[in-house]
What does this fold into?
Amino acid sequence: MVRTEDSRPPAGRRGRPRSFDRATALEKAVMAFWERGYEATSVSDLTRVMGIGAPSLYAAFGDKQALFEEVVRAYDERYGSFGVRALAEEPTARAAVARLLREAAAEYTAPGHPHGCLYAHAATNCTNAEVEEFLRGRRNATIAAIADRIRAGVAAGELPEDTDAAALARYTGVVIQGMSQQARDGASRQELEAVAEFALSIWPRT
It folds into this structure.
């Protein structure tokens, strides 16, 4: 809604301005959930790392679940968009998946943030059914996007007509999720790149 001059609160009755930078606090929440997972990250953990009190957290972000959903969207924009770009920008389905896997190897092991994928790690031991479903939906959307790109490759004659797009996309998803866990366990970028190349070696050809 556009605030008009007449709809502004009278002087002296306006709410107190935030004493923290919302974007900075959100980024710190991204790191906390990414490192610990949803279940293991408490509200007290969040207020500590974000540098704000619980009332400020609730006022700015809602409850823990609402904050987490915003965290996932922020993660997608800053850290997880490489897959979307790869599927959209590469000229063939194989090139798109190759780029996706190679960039996953780089992103999942990059310094400066927790290793692996937030989607996979945040779901560990999660008992919140709504959060589980939210994350499952995100992971399945990625697989569906890969399948669509493979089907487009089949239609364009890049892949054999009998290519099982759903199975190949699911296989790619399994590899990506496995790479995420391996990164959490200490695998290097070079080791994950080798996994990516092995996965691509079975890619069907016309």
In short: The CA atoms of residues 87 and 96 lie 5 Å apart.
